[in-house]
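User: I'm writing a short report section on ligand binding and want a predicted complex to refer to. Could you take this sequence and nicotinamide-adenine-dinucleotide and write out the structure as tokens? A short remark afterwards would be nice.
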Amino acid sequence: MVADHYQKLSGHRPSLKFFKADYRDKQAMTAVLEAYESPLGFALDPIESPIPRRSKITGVIHFAAHKAVGESIKQPLKYYANNVSGLIDFCSLLGDFGVKNFVFSSSATVYGTVADIGVPLREEYCSQDRTVFVDDDGKQKVQQSGCSGLTNPYGRTKWMCEAILNDLAHADPEWKITALRYFNPIGCDESGLLGEDPRDAATNLMPIVLRVITGRQPILNIYGDDYDTKDGTAVRDYIHVTDLARGHLAALKSRTDKGFKVYNLGTGTGHSVLEVVAAMEQVSNRKIPTQLVGRREGDVGMCVAKPNRAQEELGWRTEKSLETCCRDVWRFLELDRVAKEEALAKASTVKEALASDLTKNDAMITVSPVEEISATEPTAQETLTTEPLANESLAIAALATVSLAMETVAKEVIIANDMLTKETNPEEAMSLV
Ligand SMILES: NC(=O)c1ccc[n+]([C@@H]2O[C@H](COP(=O)([O-])OP(=O)(O)OC[C@H]3O[C@@H](n4cnc5c(N)ncnc54)[C@H](O)[C@@H]3O)[C@@H](O)[C@H]2O)c1
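Assistant: Sure. The structure tokens for the complex follow:
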């Protein structure tokens, strides 16, 4: 998928190296880091003062996390183990190798119920250190360290990770750590060649909209129309993934100081559920069936960023609108549909049809040709063969959009991910480089 993307684009592609690894696997991550060690200096007494390790790696962006809010409530230990313990061990290992420029995927969820105050959120509202600042109403405020009203374990893991990283930067001033609080990333690469497969059940609005528009889900539930917002439905700050990716580059390039710093990555403009539905309907020229249900537990009415700090300090601002997000996603879905239809037209067996990633749930794709080919239901074995494909596309897409833009700051992008399947095994992926 990534190779195809770069092949069809005229620009040069960054060197990408993939390693299939759980980032908590110390042995595997040590091997990756060792592969990028710089030639060392020498020490007069290596026992008394061991030679510090040096690395050719100039920065690390840490995306790996479990992120489903509902699952985090049911399985909190899974979240704390992966998102928090994993981060501690990983940073410890990076420190051993002298890699101390770190960008962390944080989230607007750290604002908890503070988001409900109804004004754009400043980073100071959720601080890791006591902060004195002049608020937008002109009054001086004191924010004690901490955040109030975190509503789920996932949000708590992000908050804890920020706190740990802040402590680390205080303890060792060599670290430059940037926590980026993402608001609501949507959209996909404008080429339409990289995008997120809306196959998996989701709880975020846009993936559900896509599931409904592609016929995988019959109706979109709207959770509450009695919020104190423009049309009563919940308002969020939707940011295009390409703008989000650029925010990471800005963090890597523009920060000259060391220490721990937090930035909101959002547009500063809120859109309601109904506005998102209308925008998607307009670009797709399709009707999205909706039904109103009650408020969902843990939701806040409004969550919109005040993005000024990133604008002023990182020189970053968003460029893409909600309409662009919807248009890019629709282009991806259309290209995907055409590719699947072409594959289906060529398929001569059930197995080939399945391998072309078609299932009876793909309602955008005409179901009947599959049935013409298939006299019987696909066997469990055949159905299973399509699963790794779906997971793999998601994992790669999530990373590839960011890595696409990385060529401007890195000669080579190293991607460690636990979800790489045989379709993207390291040997094959290395041949992309
Ligand atoms: N998507 C959002 O709305 C959103 C909002 C705020 C923050 N974030 C954060 O951004 C980051 C990326 O999110 P995404 O939306 O691309 O999610 P995603 O689930 O698509 O990607 C996360 C990737 O991390 C991998 N991963 C998880 N645990 C791992 C481990 N132990 N070792 C190696 N790989 C591991 C997963 O396999 C997956 O490919 C996450 O940290 C998430 O919490 C996302």
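A remark for your report: The radius of gyration is 23 Å. Residues 22-24, 63-67, 82, 86, 105, 107, 182, 184-185, 204, 394-395, 398, 417-419 surround nicotinamide-adenine-dinucleotide (CB under 6 Å).
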